[in-house]
Amino acid sequence: xxxxxxxxxxxxxxxxxxxxxxxxxxxxxxxxxxxxxxxxxxxxxxxxxxxxxxxxxxxxxxxxxxxxxxxxxxxxxxxxxxxxxxxxxxxxxxxxxxxxxxxxxxxxxxxxxxxxxxxxxxxxxxxxxxxxxxxxxxxxxxxxxxxxxxxxxxxxxxxxxxxxxxxxxxxxxxxxxxxxxxxxxxxxxxxxxxxxxxxxxxxxxxxxxxxxxxxxxxxxxxxxxxxxxxxxxxxxxxxxxxxxxxxxxxxxxxxxxxxxxxxxxxxxxxxx
Length: 272
Known about the structure:
This protein is of the alpha+beta class. The chain has helices spanning about 20-40, 45-60, 65-85, 130-135, 195-215, 215-225, 230-250, 265; strands spanning about 1-15, 95-100, 105, 110-115, 120-125, 140-150, 155-165, 170-175, 180-185, 190, 255-260. Helices cover about 45% and strands about 25% of the residues.
């Protein structure tokens, strides 16, 4: 079975390359911001139409390589779709999305190379452990990578494709999903949805109260609280997913089978 994996690798940059790398991050963030602001104003999140509208302008004004402009268009279009055109779109200079033409992994030399805005390709040594080394050597192809600037240094999140041995049908953990119970496994794990439902009902009461006031302070509070429920639900789902994986490991299962949720909205009725 073919699968994609993201391997996070620490990079050791040369001191003389720091200005060029910093400039790369700043220009890429500026490109994403311009694209997102244009898409927000035009109510456009289609990457192809954004490409036709902004590609030449970004290439001329920012001087980014063609493939970096293309990946910036995709990232900004994805952000517009996710946020549904709401919010302030100002990208921080903390990431650069690279593809197979702007990023090269050279494991035999223990380094990666990538394309800067101008000049020669830059190289950075890989500062990795045994886990990353084994995962990269075992991969069949390198799909893409994302350069990340963190507080403690620079990293490359490398996406590789490789084959994974199919799990046997003996160790299978079944997972049933729902609303009253978020997840119930065939093992011993069960997660009630009572806390999430209570949180959502509380958020709904707060929104209703603020919307009924209609004052400037109430509108500011609504803006400040927007997205909090979605983030809490995402955190809860992430927590449940990790607990399910831990249950599978504890039960000796190598395969997790999820419930088929197709048509669940039409099959599920929630009473007010």
